[in-house]
Model the fold of this input.
Amino acid sequence: MKDDVVKAWCDKQELLNRQFLLQNVLAWTFEHNQGLTPGQRICLNQERAGIMQALEALEFGHQIIRYMIPAHLEEKVQHIAMVIRNTGWEKNAPGLLSHETEVNNPEKQKTT
Done:
């Protein structure tokens, strides 16, 4: 079982794709204020942190052990991803929250 988990998440591009998916799902739920509870968003952020650790482990050739969300929550993620695809929704800002947008935007910092 442990080897299956390691093999399933050894591909860097797969990890990056998953990270992108989770970021979009989180952004959509914040923008629409629906879809996930605060606790479920915490679980998604835990997986995002696990992906970052896995990417670092891959870089240094270390073994990868990942946090993965429960199956019922994965179903919600896939449903929201389908809504995103079907509606053509795109994340407008680089950060999930407005203060992240300000921090990441040097032009905005100059004017404030």
